C-alpha cells in the first residue's frame, strides 16, 4: 500500500525500470534453455558451420550429456545456495555493489557464451565451460534477485507485480529471438552469434534502468525510507528455516496474528509523546505467518521445473515432416509457455483470488501435479518405458496452455499475498524469505527432472 505522503511515479518511470530489471534477471536462463538444440548439436560433435542454432529435429543429435537436465539443475542449485549466502553479503556488501556488480558479471559471462559460438572445440571441454558459465551466471542472478526483491518489499505491491511480469516477458523475448534466428536464413555462426548477443543488450538496458533509480523522486522516497532494522534482517540466517521444529509451526497464520495481537494488548502503554517503534523483525516469526504461502510457491515451481524444459522440449509434432513440424516445439513449448506464463503473472494486477485466508490455494497448487504424467504421455519419440497416450498436437497445446497460465498466476499470487500476511515493518523480510522458497522450488523441480526423464 502506498504511503499517504509519497510522491507520484511520474510517467511510471519507476514501474518501467523495475519491469525491465525483472526482464534482465531472467534473460540468461531463458536464452540458455531455448537454445537447447544448439547446445545438443555442439555436444554431439556437429560443426558450427553446418549446425543451425535451433534445429528442432529432436530425433537427431542424441542428448548424451543430458544437457537440458543439467542446465536446469546447475541453474537452480547456485540460485538456492547464493540466496542463502546473500544473508551475509547483505551485511558486508553495499546494495549498489551487489546489484550493479551482479549485472556487470552476468553481462561479461554471457558475452563469453556468445564468443564461444566462434570457437571450435570438442564436446567435453565445451560442456564443462558452458556448465561453469551457467553456474556463475545464476549465482550472480541469485544475489541480484534477492537484492531487488528486498527493495520491492519496501514499495507498493504493484511494483512486485511489474517486476514479475518483466520476468515473464523474458521468456517471450527469448522465444521470439529463437524463431527469428530459425527464419533468418543466415549462416549458422551468424545466426547463433546474433541470438546470444541479444540478451547482452537486455542486460545493458537493465543496468541503465538501475542507475536511473536514484535520480527519480518516487524511488528515492521509498528506498531512502527503508526501516533500518528490517534492512539489517533481509535474508538473514535462512538456515533457521531448515532447522525449525515442525511442532513450533502453528496450524494457521491467523493464529500467529491473534497471538501477536494479544501480546501487544498486554504490553504497557507507551508515553504519548514517545511513539512506539516496531521491534526487530524475526525471521522465524515472519516464517510462521507465511509458511503455507511459501510452501505453495515451492510446489508450483517444483511441478514446473520437473517437466519444463526437460520433458516438454522432447515433445515433437505427430504430423509429417514440414514447416509445422520444424516450428512446433519452439512455438508450442517455449513461446506458448512464456506468453501464457506472462499473462498469468499479469492477471494479479486486476484481482487476487483466492485470498490469503482461503484454503483453496493449496488445492489448486496440488492439482498441478497432474501435469507431470500428462506431459510424459505426450508424443516423445525418445522413450522406452511409458506408452504414448496423447499423440495429437492438440493435447500438448492444451496441456501447455493450462500449465503455463496456472504457473504464472500462482507464482505472482503467492508473491503478492505474502507481504499482506505480515506487519508493515516485516514485509521486507517476508519478501526475502519468499525469494529463498522460490529458489528452493526451482531446485527441487530441477532435481526431479532427472527421475521423470529416466522413467520415459
UniProtKB/TrEMBL annotation:
Q: Where in the cell is it found?
A: Apical cell membrane; Basolateral cell membrane
UniProt topology in membrane: Multi-pass membrane protein
- Asked if the keyword Transmembrane belongs to this entry, the reply reads yes
Single GO biological process annotation from the record:
guanine transport
Its keywords, alphabetically, are: Cell membrane, Glycoprotein, Membrane, Phosphoprotein, Transmembrane, Transmembrane helix, Transport
Reactions catalysed, semicolon-separated, are: uracil(in) = uracil(out); thymine(out) = thymine(in); cytidine(in) = cytidine(out); hypoxanthine(out) = hypoxanthine(in)
| Domain of life where this protein originates | Eukaryota
The UniProt GO MF terms for this protein read:
uridine transmembrane transporter activity
So where does this one cross the membrane?
12-39, 70-90, 97-117, 129-149, 161-180, 192-213, 290-315, 327-348, 360-382, 394-417, 429-452
Q: Name one GO cellular component term.
A: apical plasma membrane
Coiled-coil stretches:
none
InterPro entries to which the protein is assigned, alphabetical: ENT1/ENT2, Eqnu_transpt, MFS_trans_sf
What is the purpose of this protein?
Bidirectional uniporter involved in the facilitative transport of nucleosides and nucleobases, and contributes to maintaining their cellular homeostasis. Functions as a Na(+)-independent, passive transporter. Involved in the transport of nucleosides such as inosine, adenosine, uridine, thymidine, cytidine and guanosine. Also able to transport purine nucleobases (hypoxanthine, adenine, guanine) and pyrimidine nucleobases (thymine, uracil). Involved in nucleoside transport at basolateral membrane of kidney cells, allowing liver absorption of nucleoside metabolites.
Q: Which PANTHER family match?
A: EQUILIBRATIVE NUCLEOSIDE TRANSPORTER, EQUILIBRATIVE NUCLEOSIDE TRANSPORTER 2
Return the similarity comment.
Answer: Belongs to the SLC29A/ENT transporter (TC 2.A.57) family.
The name this protein goes by in its record? Equilibrative nucleoside transporter 2
Amino acid at each position: 500500500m502506498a504511503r499517504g505522503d509519497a510522491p507520484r511515479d511520474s510517467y511510471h518511470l519507476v514501474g518501467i525500470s523495475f519491469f525491465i530489471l525483472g526482464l534482465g534477471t531472467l534473460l540468461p536462463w531463458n536464452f540458455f534453455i531455448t537454445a537447447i538444440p544448439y547446445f545438443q548439436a555442439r555436444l554431439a560433435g556437429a560443426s558450427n558451420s553446418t549446425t543451425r542454432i535451433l534445429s528442432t529435429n529432436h530425433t537427431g543429435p542424441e542428448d548424451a550429456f543430458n544437457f537440458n537436465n543439467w542446465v536446469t539443475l546447475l541453474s537452480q542449485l547456485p540460485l538456492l545456495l547464493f540466496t542463502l549466502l546473500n544473508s551475509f553479503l547483505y551485511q558486508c556488501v553495499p546494495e549498489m555493489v551487489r546489484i550493479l556488480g551482479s549485472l556487470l558479471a552476468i553481462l561479461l559471462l554471457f558475452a563469453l557464451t556468445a564468443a564461444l559460438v566462434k570457437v571450435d572445440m570438442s564436446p567435453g571441454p565445451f560442456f564443462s565451460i558452458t556448465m561453469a558459465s551457467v553456474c556463475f551466471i545464476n549465482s550472480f542472478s541469485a544475489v541480484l534477485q534477492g537484492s531487488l526483491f528486498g527493495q520491492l518489499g519496501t514499495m507498493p505491491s504493484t511494483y512486485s507485480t511489474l517486476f514479475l511480469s518483466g520476468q515473464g516477458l523474458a521468456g517471450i523475448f527469448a522465444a521470439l529471438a529463437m524463431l527469428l534466428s530459425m527464419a533468418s536464413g543466415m549462416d549458422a555462426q551468424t545466426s547463433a552469434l546474433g541470438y546470444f548477443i541479444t540478451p547482452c543488450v537486455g542486460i545493458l538496458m537493465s543496468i541503465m534502468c538501475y542507475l536511473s533509480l536514484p535520480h527519480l523522486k518516487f524511488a528515492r522516497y521509498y528506498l531512502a525510507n527503508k526501516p533500518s532494522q528490517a534492512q539489517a534482517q533481509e535474508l538473514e540466517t535462512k538456515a533457521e528455516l531448515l532447522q525449525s521444529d515442525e511442532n513450533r509451526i502453528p496450524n494457521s497464520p491467523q493464529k500467529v496474528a491473534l497471538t501477536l495481537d494479544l501480546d501487544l494488548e498486554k504490553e504497557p502503554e507507551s508515553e504519548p509523546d514517545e511513539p512506539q517503534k516496531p521491534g526487530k523483525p524475526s525471521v522465524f516469526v515472519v516464517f510462521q505467518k507465511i509458511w503455507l504461502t511459501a510452501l505453495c510457491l515451492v510446489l508450483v515451481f517444483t511441478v514446473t521445473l520437473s517437466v519444463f524444459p526437460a520433458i516438454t522440449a522432447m515433445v515433437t509434432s505427430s504430423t509429417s515432416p514440414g514447416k509445422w513440424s520444424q516450428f512446433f516445439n519452439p512455438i508450442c513449448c517455449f513461446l506458448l509457455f512464456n506468453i501464457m506464463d506472462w499473462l498469468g503473472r499479469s492477471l494479479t494486477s486486476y484481482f487476487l483470488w483466492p485470498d490469503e485466508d482461503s484454503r483453496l490455494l493449496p488445492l489448486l497448487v496440488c492439482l498441478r501435479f497432474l501435469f507431470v504424467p500428462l506431459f510424459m504421455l505426450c508424443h516423445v519419440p525418445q522413450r522406452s518405458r511409458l506408452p504414448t497416450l496423447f499423440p495429437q498436437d492438440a493435447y500438448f497445446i492444451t496441456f501447455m496452455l493450462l500449465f503455463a497460465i496456472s504457473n504464472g498466476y500462482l507464482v505472482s499470487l503467492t508473491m503478492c499475498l505474502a507481504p499482506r500476511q505480515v506487519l508493515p515493518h516485516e514485509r521486507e523480510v517476508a519478501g526475502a524469505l519468499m525469494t529463498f522458497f522460490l529458489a528452493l522450488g526451482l531446485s527441487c523441480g530441477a532435481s526431479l527432472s532427472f527421475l521423470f526423464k529416466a522413467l520415459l
